[in-house]
Amino acid sequence: MIAETVCSAVSAAGLGIAVVTAYRKRFLAAARVAAYSLVPVALVMTGLVQWLADTAFSPTAWAGFGLLGLSWVLFATTRTVERRRGGTTRKERKAARAAESPGAVAPEASAPALGQGARPAAKQAKQAPASRGDDDFSDIEAILKKHGI
Predict the structure, then answer these.
(1) CA dist 24 → 13, 20, 32, 38, 46 (Å)
(2) How many CB atoms lie within 10 A of CB 51?
C-alpha cells in the first residue's frame, strides 16, 4: 500500500513539473517529463509494484536469490580453475593444431593461381618448418609469407 502511494505521489509531482515546463513554452521537454511521470502510475496499475513489494519482503524469494548467487559463484569459480589448470586438454589441442598446420596451407595449390608457376623445392623446404611452429600464429605467418607480406 505504501509503494502505491509513493508511486502516485511521484507521478503527481512529475505531472506538476511538466505543467510548469509547458508554461515556460518548452513543450518538448514538458512532454518528456509527463511521459516519465506516468511510468510509476502505469506500474501500479499493472500490478508490478505489488508483485515487487511481495517479492522484496518474502524470505523465500531472498533465499532463491541467494541460491542463484551461490550457483553463479560456483560456476565462475569452476570456470576460472579450469582455465588456469588447463592441463592435458590444452596440450592436446596445441599438438593437434601443430599436426594440422602443414596441411592447412598448401603452397602448391595456390601457386598457379598467383601465376608463379612451380616453386623450387628449396623454398618449400624453407617454409615447411615455419608453418610447424609451436605458437598460434604460425599458420597466419605462412599465409602472409606466401603472399609476400
Answers:
(1) 17, 7, 14, 21, 33
(2) 11
